[in-house]
Amino acid sequence: MPGTIERIKAPVLDEMEEFQKKFHLAMKSSVPLLNNITAYIVKRKGKQMRPLFVFLSAKVCGGITDSTYTAASLIELLHTATLVHDDVVDDSNERRGFFSLNALWKNKIAVLVGDYLLSRGLLLSVDNNEHKLLGIVSNAVREMSEGELLQIEKARRLDIEEKIYYDIIRQKTASLLASCCACGASSAKADEETVTRMKGFGELCGMAFQVKDDLFDYGTGEDIGKPTGIDIKERKMTLPLIYALGKASWTEKRKIINIVKNHNEDKKKVREVIRFVSESGGIAYATEKMNAFKEQALELLLSFPSSPARDSLELLVRYTTERKR
């Protein structure tokens, strides 16, 4: 979807550029090593989707204020801290084509940098008396941690039902986008009802986004490429697999679970699971659910006044479900 991100950013382009400067300043330290690392973090930042949700939500709900910049920086600082810690926990050497911090500077430094970013976020909100924003984002970080732990607990037995799966992705993924939208609305001095509505919109976007991510594992769509099977290798129970197992016979279910548990490094067997999911209608079912979340998000968005920023949020919802990677 060439040019889509540029069109989405158009109503808040100046503010997003100003945010980049403020965010860089928010990470400054008197320790040269830390400044080298934070400069590397800024350099590897991708499409800046989270700040984009914050600024567009603020514009839809009344207008961008100084508080909006604090909100976007707070979310990026706390979220980046969780990513740095995740890479250490997962022993990941790469993130989005860049070396991870732990690959370049080892685990001890990476954990300390994560702690530093977390503290900068806390201080940024306290120094600016943004306790409400801090409450919204801290709640999201708590939910993200709980979602990860719930997923780990369930992965041991691979007994995730569809309802539990939704609980996990609501906490792990959707809570962060929900907090972006809630912070944007709150920073624009919107009333509680508006903040809650915008938070609901963000949550639905997050749900659709995660189901789309699940589908990438199965290589759905001509231009997405070959199935990756990464979730299967990591023993993650995603929606296509949960649905397929629910339709399977006891013998078939036992066989597939055994592959996911004990043979997830065997490429041939992983392809067997992918084929089983596809033939069982798991991909079609997950696509249907993703589109349902997308339509609910768009319907909720229509309850806000028409504006270029609202149009951009609509484009952003469609982008998250139609992206190729």
SSE layout and pairing:
Layout: H1 4-9, H2 13-26, H3 32-43, H4 49-60, H5 66-90, E1 94-95, E2 98-99, H6 101-127, H7 131-155, H8 162-187, H9 192-216, H10 230-233, H11 239-247, H12 250-262, H13 267-279, H14 282-301, H15 308-322
Antiparallel strand pairs: 1-2
Helix pairs in contact: 2-5, 4-5, 4-8, 4-15, 5-6, 5-7, 5-8, 7-8, 8-9, 9-14, 9-15, 11-13, 11-14, 14-15
Task: Look at the structure and give the mean pLDDT.
Answer: 84
Rg (CA only): 20 Å
Summing up helix and strand content along with how strands pair, one would put the structural category as mainly alpha
What do we call the CATH homologous superfamily? Farnesyl Diphosphate Synthase
Domain count, please report it: 1
The count of DSSP E runs of length 2 or more, i.e. the number of strands, is 2
Q: Portion of residues in helices? A: over 70%
Features:
15 helices, 325 residues, mainly alpha, 2 strands, two-stranded antiparallel sheet, single chain, Farnesyl Diphosphate Synthase
Give an overview in words.
By secondary structure, this protein is an all-alpha fold. The model is unreliable at 221-226 (pLDDT under 50). A two-stranded antiparallel ribbon has the order 1-2. Helices cover 76% and strands 1% of the residues. It has one domain: Farnesyl Diphosphate Synthase (Orthogonal Bundle). It contains 15 helices and two strands. Strand 1 (94-95) and strand 2 (98-99) form a beta hairpin.
